[in-house]
Q: What sequence folds into this?
Protein backbone atom coordinates (compact mmCIF):
# COMPACT_ATOMS: atom_id res chain seq x y z
CA UNK A 1 0.00 0.00 0.00
CA UNK A 2 1.34 3.42 -1.00
CA UNK A 3 0.04 6.85 0.00
CA UNK A 4 0.95 9.89 -2.07
CA UNK A 5 0.99 12.60 0.54
CA UNK A 6 2.21 16.04 1.55
CA UNK A 7 2.70 16.68 5.25
CA UNK A 8 0.60 19.86 5.29
CA UNK A 9 -2.24 18.56 3.13
CA UNK A 10 -5.38 18.20 5.23
CA UNK A 11 -6.90 15.78 2.72
CA UNK A 12 -3.82 13.54 3.03
CA UNK A 13 -4.00 13.94 6.82
CA UNK A 14 -7.48 12.35 6.66
CA UNK A 15 -6.18 9.36 4.73
CA UNK A 16 -3.24 8.95 7.13
CA UNK A 17 -5.58 8.90 10.14
CA UNK A 18 -7.86 6.30 8.52
CA UNK A 19 -4.87 4.08 7.63
CA UNK A 20 -3.57 4.37 11.21
CA UNK A 21 -6.96 3.68 12.83
CA UNK A 22 -7.13 0.49 10.80
CA UNK A 23 -3.58 -0.44 11.70
CA UNK A 24 -2.43 -0.56 8.08
CA UNK A 25 1.19 0.07 7.21
CA UNK A 26 1.97 1.92 4.01
CA UNK A 27 4.78 3.48 2.04
CA UNK A 28 4.77 7.25 2.26
CA UNK A 29 5.46 8.92 -1.08
CA UNK A 30 5.98 12.64 -0.60
CA UNK A 31 4.85 15.09 -3.27
CA UNK A 32 5.80 18.65 -2.46
CA UNK A 33 3.00 21.09 -3.33
CA UNK A 34 5.24 24.16 -3.54
CA UNK A 35 8.72 23.03 -4.64
CA UNK A 36 9.52 23.87 -8.28
CA UNK A 37 5.94 24.89 -8.98
CA UNK A 38 4.53 21.75 -7.35
CA UNK A 39 5.53 18.12 -7.79
CA UNK A 40 1.83 17.24 -7.94
CA UNK A 41 1.54 19.06 -11.26
CA UNK A 42 4.17 16.99 -13.06
CA UNK A 43 3.23 14.44 -15.70
CA UNK A 44 4.30 11.46 -13.58
CA UNK A 45 1.87 12.44 -10.80
CA UNK A 46 -0.92 13.46 -13.19
CA UNK A 47 -0.77 9.89 -14.48
CA UNK A 48 -1.59 8.81 -10.92
CA UNK A 49 -4.21 11.48 -10.21
CA UNK A 50 -5.44 13.39 -13.27
CA UNK A 51 -6.76 16.11 -10.94
CA UNK A 52 -3.24 16.65 -9.61
CA UNK A 53 -4.42 16.56 -6.01
CA UNK A 54 -2.95 14.97 -2.93
CA UNK A 55 -3.70 12.32 -1.66
CA UNK A 56 -3.80 9.22 -3.84
CA UNK A 57 -3.69 5.63 -2.64
CA UNK A 58 -2.13 2.74 -4.51
CA UNK A 59 -3.28 -0.71 -3.44
CA UNK A 60 -3.25 -4.07 -5.21
CA UNK A 61 -2.41 -2.37 -8.50
CA UNK A 62 -5.33 0.08 -8.23
CA UNK A 63 -5.08 3.85 -7.87
CA UNK A 64 -7.68 5.57 -5.75
CA UNK A 65 -8.06 9.34 -5.54
CA UNK A 66 -10.24 11.66 -3.42
CA UNK A 67 -9.65 11.31 0.30
CA UNK A 68 -13.24 10.38 1.18
CA UNK A 69 -13.26 7.68 -1.51
CA UNK A 70 -9.96 6.42 -0.07
CA UNK A 71 -11.47 6.27 3.43
CA UNK A 72 -14.61 4.50 2.15
CA UNK A 73 -12.40 2.05 0.23
CA UNK A 74 -10.35 1.28 3.34
CA UNK A 75 -13.58 0.82 5.28
CA UNK A 76 -14.84 -1.74 2.76
CA UNK A 77 -11.55 -3.58 2.36
CA UNK A 78 -10.58 -3.55 6.05
CA UNK A 79 -13.85 -3.34 7.97
CA UNK A 80 -12.35 -3.69 11.46
CA UNK A 81 -12.21 -1.43 13.36
CA UNK A 82 -15.08 0.24 11.58
CA UNK A 83 -15.23 3.95 10.93
CA UNK A 84 -19.02 3.83 10.75
CA UNK A 85 -21.68 2.94 13.30
CA UNK A 86 -23.97 -0.03 12.70
CA UNK A 87 -27.43 1.40 12.08
CA UNK A 88 -28.05 2.90 8.61
CA UNK A 89 -29.46 6.10 10.10
CA UNK A 90 -26.36 6.55 12.27
CA UNK A 91 -24.11 5.87 9.30
CA UNK A 92 -25.95 8.56 7.37
CA UNK A 93 -25.47 11.07 10.20
CA UNK A 94 -21.74 10.34 10.38
CA UNK A 95 -21.41 10.69 6.61
CA UNK A 96 -23.34 13.95 6.77
CA UNK A 97 -20.86 15.35 9.30
CA UNK A 98 -17.93 14.18 7.19
CA UNK A 99 -19.45 15.70 4.05
CA UNK A 100 -20.15 18.97 5.81
CA UNK A 101 -16.37 19.27 6.07
CA UNK A 102 -15.36 17.59 2.81
CA UNK A 103 -17.94 19.26 0.56
CA UNK A 104 -18.95 22.50 2.24
CA UNK A 105 -15.83 23.77 4.05
CA UNK A 106 -12.63 22.31 2.59
CA UNK A 107 -13.23 22.98 -1.15
CA UNK A 108 -13.86 26.68 -0.49
CA UNK A 109 -10.75 27.06 1.60
CA UNK A 110 -8.02 25.06 -0.02
CA UNK A 111 -4.87 26.57 -1.40
CA UNK A 112 -5.80 26.77 -5.05
CA UNK A 113 -9.09 28.55 -4.29
CA UNK A 114 -7.35 31.06 -2.00
CA UNK A 115 -4.67 31.63 -4.67
CA UNK A 116 -7.34 32.17 -7.31
CA UNK A 117 -9.01 34.80 -5.15
CA UNK A 118 -5.63 36.56 -4.90
CA UNK A 119 -4.17 36.38 -8.38
CA UNK A 120 -6.79 36.54 -11.13
CA UNK A 121 -9.50 38.04 -8.90
CA UNK A 122 -7.23 40.61 -7.24
CA UNK A 123 -8.35 40.16 -3.63
CA UNK A 124 -5.90 41.29 -0.93
CA UNK A 125 -4.73 39.16 2.02
CA UNK A 126 -7.36 40.60 4.39
CA UNK A 127 -10.19 39.73 2.02
CA UNK A 128 -8.85 36.21 1.49
CA UNK A 129 -8.50 35.67 5.25
CA UNK A 130 -12.04 36.96 5.74
CA UNK A 131 -13.27 34.51 3.07
CA UNK A 132 -11.46 31.64 4.77
CA UNK A 133 -12.81 32.45 8.23
CA UNK A 134 -16.35 32.97 6.98
CA UNK A 135 -16.68 29.46 5.54
CA UNK A 136 -15.02 27.84 8.54
CA UNK A 137 -17.28 29.74 10.96
CA UNK A 138 -20.42 28.81 9.04
CA UNK A 139 -19.44 25.13 8.79
CA UNK A 140 -18.16 24.77 12.35
CA UNK A 141 -21.30 26.44 13.79
CA UNK A 142 -23.46 23.75 12.18
CA UNK A 143 -21.03 20.97 13.06
CA UNK A 144 -21.03 22.16 16.67
CA UNK A 145 -24.78 21.57 16.84
CA UNK A 146 -24.51 18.13 15.23
CA UNK A 147 -21.75 17.09 17.63
CA UNK A 148 -23.74 18.39 20.62
CA UNK A 149 -26.70 16.29 19.43
CA UNK A 150 -24.91 13.07 18.54
CA UNK A 151 -21.72 12.80 20.59
CA UNK A 152 -21.77 10.51 23.63
CA UNK A 153 -19.34 11.83 26.24
CA UNK A 154 -17.93 14.58 23.95
CA UNK A 155 -15.00 12.38 23.06
CA UNK A 156 -16.07 11.66 19.48
CA UNK A 157 -18.27 13.48 16.95
CA UNK A 158 -20.76 10.64 17.02
CA UNK A 159 -21.44 8.16 19.84
CA UNK A 160 -18.52 6.62 21.67
CA UNK A 161 -16.08 5.50 18.99
CA UNK A 162 -13.95 6.97 16.21
CA UNK A 163 -15.86 7.48 12.97
CA UNK A 164 -15.24 9.09 9.60
CA UNK A 165 -16.53 12.35 11.05
CA UNK A 166 -13.61 12.40 13.51
CA UNK A 167 -11.17 11.51 10.74
CA UNK A 168 -12.23 14.63 8.84
CA UNK A 169 -12.64 16.92 11.84
CA UNK A 170 -9.09 16.88 13.17
CA UNK A 171 -7.35 17.92 9.90
CA UNK A 172 -9.91 20.68 9.33
CA UNK A 173 -9.31 22.03 12.84
CA UNK A 174 -5.53 21.86 12.28
CA UNK A 175 -6.05 23.81 9.08
CA UNK A 176 -8.19 26.43 10.83
CA UNK A 177 -5.53 26.94 13.52
CA UNK A 178 -3.17 28.13 10.83
CA UNK A 179 -5.61 31.01 10.32
CA UNK A 180 -5.91 31.57 14.07
CA UNK A 181 -9.61 30.76 14.27
CA UNK A 182 -11.11 31.11 17.75
CA UNK A 183 -12.38 27.60 18.46
CA UNK A 184 -13.77 28.47 21.89
CA UNK A 185 -16.93 29.46 20.03
CA UNK A 186 -17.46 25.74 19.33
CA UNK A 187 -17.08 24.08 22.76
CA UNK A 188 -18.29 20.57 21.84
CA UNK A 189 -16.17 20.53 18.68
CA UNK A 190 -13.17 21.77 20.67
CA UNK A 191 -13.60 19.17 23.43
CA UNK A 192 -13.92 16.33 20.91
CA UNK A 193 -10.86 17.54 18.99
CA UNK A 194 -8.77 17.78 22.16
CA UNK A 195 -9.59 14.16 22.96
CA UNK A 196 -9.05 12.86 19.43
CA UNK A 197 -5.65 14.53 19.26
CA UNK A 198 -4.45 12.30 22.14
CA UNK A 199 -5.19 9.05 20.28
CA UNK A 200 -2.16 7.23 18.78
CA UNK A 201 -3.69 6.94 15.29
CA UNK A 202 -4.24 10.69 15.19
CA UNK A 203 -0.89 11.53 16.78
CA UNK A 204 1.01 9.50 14.19
CA UNK A 205 -0.84 11.24 11.34
CA UNK A 206 0.08 14.80 12.40
CA UNK A 207 1.79 16.89 9.73
CA UNK A 208 4.83 17.60 11.89
CA UNK A 209 5.77 13.92 12.28
CA UNK A 210 5.58 13.01 8.59
CA UNK A 211 8.78 12.12 6.72
CA UNK A 212 8.55 15.26 4.56
CA UNK A 213 7.75 17.64 7.46
CA UNK A 214 9.73 20.88 7.35
N1 LIG B 1 -11.50 16.66 -2.64
C1 LIG B 1 -10.11 16.33 -2.64
C2 LIG B 1 -9.32 17.55 -2.31
C3 LIG B 1 -7.85 17.29 -2.40
C4 LIG B 1 -7.06 18.58 -2.28
O1 LIG B 1 -7.58 19.70 -2.43
N2 LIG B 1 -5.77 18.41 -2.01
C5 LIG B 1 -4.93 19.56 -1.90
C6 LIG B 1 -4.07 19.45 -0.67
S1 LIG B 1 -5.08 19.48 0.79
C7 LIG B 1 -4.07 19.64 -3.13
O2 LIG B 1 -3.59 18.64 -3.63
N3 LIG B 1 -3.87 20.85 -3.64
C8 LIG B 1 -3.04 21.06 -4.75
C9 LIG B 1 -3.34 22.35 -5.44
O3 LIG B 1 -4.27 23.04 -5.01
O4 LIG B 1 -2.62 22.66 -6.39
C10 LIG B 1 -9.83 15.20 -1.64
O5 LIG B 1 -10.56 15.12 -0.63
O6 LIG B 1 -8.93 14.39 -1.88
A:
Amino acid sequence: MKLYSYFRSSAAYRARIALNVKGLSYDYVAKHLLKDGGEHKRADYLAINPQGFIPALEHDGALITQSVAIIEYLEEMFPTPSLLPTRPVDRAIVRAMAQLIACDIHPLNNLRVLNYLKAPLGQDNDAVTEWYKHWIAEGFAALEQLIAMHSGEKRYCFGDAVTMADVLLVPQVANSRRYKMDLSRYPALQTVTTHLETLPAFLAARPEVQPDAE
